[in-house]
Amino acid sequence: MKEYRILFMGTAQFAVPSLIKLLDLNQDIVNVYSSPPKKANRGMEVTNSPVINFAQSKGLNYSHPDNLKDELEVKKIKELELDIIIVIAYGLIIPREILTIPKKGCFNLHGSLLPRWRGAAPIQRAIIEGDKKTGITFMKMNEELDTGDIVLSKEINIDINDNYQSLEHQLADLGADSFKEFLDFIETENSFIRQNNIHATYARKIEKAETKLNWEESAKKVIRRINAYSPNPGAWFEFKGKRIKILEASLSDKQGKAGTIVSDDLTIACGDQSIQPQKLKKEGKEETSLDNFLRGNKIEKGYVIQ
Q1: Domain covering 5-203, topology
Q2: Which residues of 197-223 are buried (b: 16+ CB within 10 A; e: fewer)?
Q3: pLDDT digits (tens, 9 = 90+) for 153-180
Q4: Superfamily for the 208-296 domain
Q5: Alpha-carbon separation of residue 265 from 91, 262, 291 (angstroms)
Q6: Which H or E element spans position 20?
């Protein structure tokens, strides 16, 4: 396999398996770019991204510029004499000045079967909308959002029990395992496929407001939301002034007014059918099973969750 000079741009954990695979394939990772460190946790400590942490562990060159449009930053990238830029879950827009630098181009690994679910939250939106399948797409980047020509795509089924975490892990591994085939493909640009915009859908980012459960929705839709937001940010309801996240739930045929507790085992009626939480996390507490939760939190039959 040909060795390419590659600038790797990634931030989230989703990108790490691909960086590992590129090193395993003996590619020349000349630098690793990631979003700037953020303050996190209660102490507001500055924390590096998963990609930077991995780069440090392997002794790779890394950087986290605030502004890719800065002339000095563009100049620095030009001086790397790149063959390829790989972008995965990076978080910053790549300006035209940088897209045109590498000899082969800039390529993105996206967590959906483009053109379905362009945008920031393709994995969550696929789960919420009940898609039966999803996958990964390698595309050659242009100045628009996720509209570039498709180099390679791989498909997997979405299991009814998949949540965001499990599906993200599957797709991250699928993307990483596909890199050898991708690198072979980019030698022949005439094999790229133009996206059909007629079939495009947009995966807008997950807003905090939509993570509060709406019991008027069908039980199946409620469970898909629980799965899509699990483990973070977490789908939730409020009880006695505390947020309670439901991290896992099962479907029940019991009926009742939406939001009503219809049994002593915390079965909650929805617009159609009902759900029974299996894993919960009360605000300020650790994740726990339904049985353990009920021992310390009595929510009586007939109570209506707002």
Answers
A1: Rossmann fold (3.40.50)
A2: eeeeeebeebeeebbebebebebebbb
A3: 999 999 999 999 999 999 999 999 999 9
A4: Formyl transferase, C-terminal domain (3.10.25.10)
A5: 42, 8, 8
A6: helix 16-24
